[in-house]
Design a protein that fits this description.
Length: 315
């Protein structure tokens, strides 16, 4: 006995309504990132009112160090190294005069990894005073050394410096840096236009902007919001907002608007690897158990990395 189409349609609508009610379906994107925010959710990374927010970044940063950096730092370093060295107007990464900027650096573990493991002269900038203070205090300690190198150990380590500042008003001069990196920053940024304007301002012609961010996709909603944040409690509550995630097409378009050359073919995906054997050994469903490490992937549907080169440089 078959059900009439009207009954099937009604059942589908009912199931869809239940899914929305329990937030199994991602919300629609903002019409404007800067004009509309959810009332209960406020950005903490780039909002001056949050500069004295309780310091709760260390746990997330440790996960970032152990799992993400071994996969992402070599990619970001290669992007910085290959692009800056090919232009006569820009200092090579190994030159004492070269300078690279990590925007939204948090407690600086990625910044330390690029300096200690890959030889870049790094300046890390973050809006949170306590994050910058922690990074400065630990940059020469064992914590800084373990922060890691992400797959490399430079023969000559780069210099390290940390400053408090906003991604919307970076504390460096015009055309003064050879490369800018943004690790897990774009998806927390209200005004991507303003951020990219600042990146464009501080980069030398031919400089590179390299980034790691999260796609605004259904797989990312399920993986980063529902699983990691809501169900498995691997992230701080409301640490991520799906509506602020950034698709590869969106960031590529914005970069081209700001005079960058960008190729989607250069983008690389990242995804966690599931380890059932380690789960049986540790009985942990989170990091260090079922989620044992990250791997690179061609799929950009959840997390991905990319880079772009500022134009008007001699080739």
């Amino acid at each position: 006995m078959s059900l009439p189409m009207s009954s099937l349609f009604s059942a589908f609508i009912a199931l869809w309504a239940i899914a929305i009610a329990v937030k199994l379906v991602p919300p629609g994107p903002f019409e404007s990132r800067t004009a509309q925010q959810e009332r209960e959710w406020r950005l903490s990374f780039h909002n001056p009112s949050a500069r004295k927010a309780p310091f709760s970044l260390l746990t997330d940063a440790q996960v970032q160090t152990q799992l993400l950096n071994p996969m992402r730092l070599p990619y970001l370093a290669q992007a910085l190294r290959n692009t800056t060295c090919r232009h006569a107007s820009s200092a090579c990464f190994s030159s004492p005069d070269s300078r690279f900027l990590d925007v939204g650096c948090g407690i600086g573990l990625g910044t330390m990894g690029l300096a200690n493991g890959h030889g870049f002269n790094m300046l890390g900038v973050d809006i949170l005073d306590n994050a910058v203070n922690w990074a400065t205090a630990h940059q020469n300690s064992d914590d800084g050394e373990r922060s890691t190198t992400g797959g490399g150990e430079a023969q000559v380590k780069g210099t390290l410096e940390f400053r408090q500042g906003s991604t919307y008003s970076l504390p460096v001069a015009d055309a003064s840096v050879d490369g800018v990196v943004a690790m897990n920053v774009l998806e927390h940024t209200e005004d991507l236009q303003r951020l990219l304007q600042e990146v464009q301002r501080v980069l030398k012609p031919g400089g590179v902007f390299a980034f790691h961010t999260i796609n605004r996709s259904w797989p990312a909603y399920w993986m980063m919001i529902k699983m990691a944040q809501d169900w498995m409690l691997l992230k701080r509550r409301r640490a991520n907002n799906w509506r602020f995630f950034v698709s590869p097409a969106e960031i590529s378009g914005l970069l081209r608007e700001h005079n960058f050359a960008v190729q989607r073919a250069d983008f690389m995906g990242l995804r966690p690897s599931f380890n059932l054997q380690q789960l049986r050994q540790t009985w942990k469903i989170g990091w260090g158990g079922l989620l044992s490490h990250y791997v690179r992937a061609a799929d950009l549907s959840v997390e991905y990395m990319g880079y772009a080169i500022l134009k008007n440089a001699p080739y």
